[in-house]
Design goal:
By secondary structure, this protein is α/β, with parallel strands linked by helices. It has helices at 43-52, 54-66, 118-148, 185-197, 206-215, 219-228, and strands at 2-7, 10-17, 23-27, 32-38, 80-83, 86-94, 100-104, 107-112, 154-158, 165-168, 173-177.
């Protein structure tokens, strides 16, 4: 059963699951608040718990509000773009040929047809980002399948507004935010491991945390680094 708690300006989405302990989270980039409680938890108890954590919730939301944002990308010459956490300068080549992207030293060369607008250039870059991820993700999944003794039936890459990844436990699928290509590669690995652990434990339960602690003991540091990095300026449709 899902419900919503309103405490002043704070809205909290409450979910009841078969878990032992309460889990409260404030999610980047927009400060969405979720509270997961054991089945049978009375609404007034969930509300009292949320009130007791209100100062912490507000601190986390303020942190996300103040977090650095990328300036909107125009996909023009001399503009900064990021790949695996490193800064590159963009050059734009106009030619009557199929659009493509090349990378050389610290430059990203975007080749587009004359008259292409920012939206078209963004699409070309996004497809390039996906191709880079497709080169890296399968080997990481294969390695962690052996370590975690699970099987990923398939993975998908897409733009996500508020999540770095997600997992469909029943189908055995994981989804990854294409923005991860801009972050250091070890943070991509952390997100992959996080979602693959959900194939073992669907919820963020104590068991889930225990599995992460055993197999990826630096996950807290990785999560903190990922959430502290600048957020994308684009507002993509889900």
């Amino acid at each position: 059963m899902n419900e919503t708690i309103h405490i002043g300006e704070v809205t909290i989405s409450v979910t009841r699951k078969d878990i032992k302990n309460v889990h409260l989270a404030v999610h980047p980039p927009d400060g969405r608040v979720t509270l997961t409680t054991p089945n049978g938890t009375r609404p007034e108890v969930a509300r009292a718990y949320a009130i007791s954590k209100l100062n912490w919730i507000r601190e986390q939301k303020t942190k996300f509000d103040r977090q650095a944002r990328e300036t909107p990308r125009k996909f023009i010459g001399r503009e900064s773009h990021y790949l695996w956490g490193r800064r590159y300068l963009m050059t734009v080549v106009n030619q009557n040929a199929k659009p493509h992207v090349l990378i050389d030293h610290r430059r990203i060369a975007l080749s587009v047809r004359p008259g292409s607008d920012a939206r078209k250039r963004a699409e070309v870059i996004h497809e390039w980002h996906k191709s880079i991820l497709h080169e890296v993700v399968p080997s990481l999944i294969k390695m962690w399948e052996r370590k975690l003794k699970v099987k990923v039936a398939g993975y998908f890459l897409q733009r996500m507004k508020t999540k770095w990844g997600s997992c469909n436990h029943k189908a055995g699928h994981i989804r990854l935010n294409t923005e991860l290509v801009k972050k250091p590669k070890d943070l991509l690995e952390y997100v992959i491991v996080h979602e693959m652990v959900h194939l073992i434990e669907p919820t963020h339960s104590d068991r889930f945390i225990m599995i992460l602690d055993v197999h990826y003991p630096t996950w807290r540091e990785a999560r903190a680094e990922l959430n502290d990095l600048p957020l994308t300026a684009e507002v993509w449709k889900a």
